[in-house]
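Dig into what follows:
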Amino acid sequence: MTPTNASSETNTVSESSSSTSQIPLEDRIVWLNGVLLPANEVQISPFDHGWLVGDAVFETLVIVRGMPFAISRHLERLTFSAQQMKIALPDTDELRQAMMDVTDANGLNEGRLRVTISSGTGPLGSARGHSEPTAIIAATPQTPWPQSSAVATMSWSINENSPLAGLKTVSYGANVRALSLAAAKGATEAIFPNTKGQLCEGTGSNVFLVHRGQLITPSLASGCLAGVTRQLLIELTGAKEQDIPLPALAAAAEAFLCSTTRNIHPIHTVDNQRLRLCPGPATQAASEAFEQLMATEIDP
């Protein structure tokens, strides 16, 4: 078994989706408010609040062996985000079936799937209207990640007291800007502190590191998202949640990112400083445990 998911993912993705990867995005089949149709036939109002003000929640799932992985956990988090944002969700059984239908309609054995639910149409401002929500599900092949990653820490911070803290909303402008800056520094992920200077999260990932022989990750009180992969890893490895000073990441013996699309992704460099181990033994053990889980359970 490989120590990381990167090399095996590269082979699996390239082999299983070689034909479907050539399909233009506009020709892919999506689910819009209960109807399957080509993406180029989708019509969304210019007054939809997801588009206007980022008033929407979403989930990204990885497709494994033709099925969305950990679908129940993702639906649970989607429900939580929608409840906090007071966005009415379609029936979760309907969403579950729609995810399968979109996966099948696009012929994907491996890939990524996204569910987005907005509050619907409204005025040109933050106040909501009274329309029904807009629900969209789309799926594409997954672009493979490199075997390991360089990360760059940001001076911008995540507000752990934000009304959006812990919610998976489409308000990703800060992430887009941070990831662009990280790319300019030769990194593939940007890492945020919170307002207390503690390690928080990446733009699309959670962070684990080894400190004094213990695998640790920022607690949810840091303002980080309750990642599905993060929680599974805590259950698999016994990693401890705690407050972590941001500089501890660069000082760690080993560290890794995790997310739905990355699985376990070793970090080799933090702010141009190479870590001693990549991947280290804790990273390898976490990766092997997670790969075993994915191989044996589709909805853990």
Observations:
- The first strand starts at residue 29 and ends at 32.
